[in-house]
Amino acid sequence: MLIKPENWDLSGPPEPKIMITDVIIHPLKVIADSRGRVMHMLRADSSLFKQFGEIYFSVVYPGVIKGWKKHFFMTQHFAVPVGNIKLVIYDDRDDSKSKGKSQEIFIGENNYMIVRIPPMLWYSFGSTDDRFALIANCTDIVHDPKEYITKDISNNDIPYKW
Questions:
Q1: Which site from 37, 92, 135, 146 is most exposed, i.e. has the minimal number of CB atoms within 10 Å?
Q2: How would you classify residue 12: left for phi > 0, otherwise alpha for psi between -120 and 50, otherwise beta?
Q3: 4 or 1, greater pLDDT
């Protein structure tokens, strides 16, 4: 049974209303047949690819929200091959046209895509299913705990309520 915050709308992925400057959303190819599926993510010849840092996987359980997190230098590329998530990105960059805006993006098996999150944006995410979601993240630099900051999901500095 999915335990969800009251204001989650799980009726399906809406069209993005606000696009955060420098965030790129790109549909991904899925090749499926009776034996299973191949789900593409990122290639070295893609315009999204800058350089390889590392790939890691993050599991998020039903009813759990991970975030808020902001990287200072790392560019991330999220894809969700298992389950479905709502990803929220908030822009507090002084020089950005989308400063003060947030964007909800639904990613996963039901809407397979890659989302490129550049440095200096806050993000958080949660599973929208009654099972876990698996997030694949291909970054352009190696993880460094001094390179990012976090805030509690209930922090009032970010004007988004889960």
A1: 146
A2: left
A3: 4
Q: Is the dihedral of CA 79, 21, 5, 14 positive or negative?
A: negative
Measured from the Cβ of residue 53, the count of other Cβ atoms closer than 10 Å reads 18
Q: Which residues pair with 58 in a beta bridge?
A: 135
Pair of tokens at residue 81: 């091959």
E-only strand ranges, 99-154: 102-108, 113-117, 122-127, 133-139, 148-150
Beta bridge partners of 89: 103, 123
Q: Which helix (H) or strand (E) holds 86?
A: strand 84-90
pLDDT tens for each residue of 64-85? 999 999 999 999 999 999 999 9
For residue 153, the number of C-alpha atoms closer than 13 Å in the C-beta half-sphere is 12
Which structure tokens are listed for 59? 């599991």
- Please answer whether residues 133 and 82 qualify as being in contact, where contact means their C-beta atoms are separated by less than 8 angstroms: yes
Residue written as token pair 């291909």: 138
Cα 90 from Cα 101, distance rounded (Å): 6
Phi, psi of 71 (to 5 degrees): -95, 140
